[in-house]
Design brief:
Layout (H helix, E strand, L loop, with lengths): L1 H20 L15 H9 L3 H5 L3 H25 L4 H33 L3
Helix pairs in contact: 1-4, 2-5, 4-5
Length: 121
């Protein structure tokens, strides 16, 4: 149970620190001057890709790492908890893809908004 609490607190801290850790310090140097839907869709498919297209390499790497680590950690927690609590394990197995999908949506929204503001043709 302690592992689950640590994972939830860690995920919450990551979720709240990402917007401030890579806050915009000025205009973005866009790699792609196109419709903002393109970086948004790219970030929905692969979180962080839209940020790379917008020229935000650090933010893109952060979004990609969170998209990999967060569901993996929850899935690993589910596997480790299987012998102890099958019900909690099954809940976590459902939560892992939901977390990934939620992060993909947040990443896509961020990429779209930055592209809309700075990367219009």
């Amino acid at each position: 149970m302690r592992t689950v609490i640590v994972l939830i607190v860690s995920a919450a801290l990551l979720w709240t620190s990402v917007p401030t850790a890579w806050a915009q310090q000025g205009p973005v140097k866009c790699r792609l001057k196109a419709d903002p839907l393109l970086p948004g869709a790219a970030s929905f498919l692969i979180p962080g890709l839209g940020q790379f297209l917008n020229g935000e390499d650090g933010k893109g790497l952060t979004h990609l790492l969170i998209a990999i680590v967060l569901p993996s950690a929850v899935g690993l927690g589910a596997i480790l908890l299987l012998p102890v609590s099958p019900m909690l394990s099954s809940i976590l197995l459902v939560a892992a893809p939901v977390l990934y999908l939620g992060w993909a949506v947040a990443s896509a929204m961020d990429a779209y908004q930055i592209a809309e503001k700075y990367c219009r043709p």
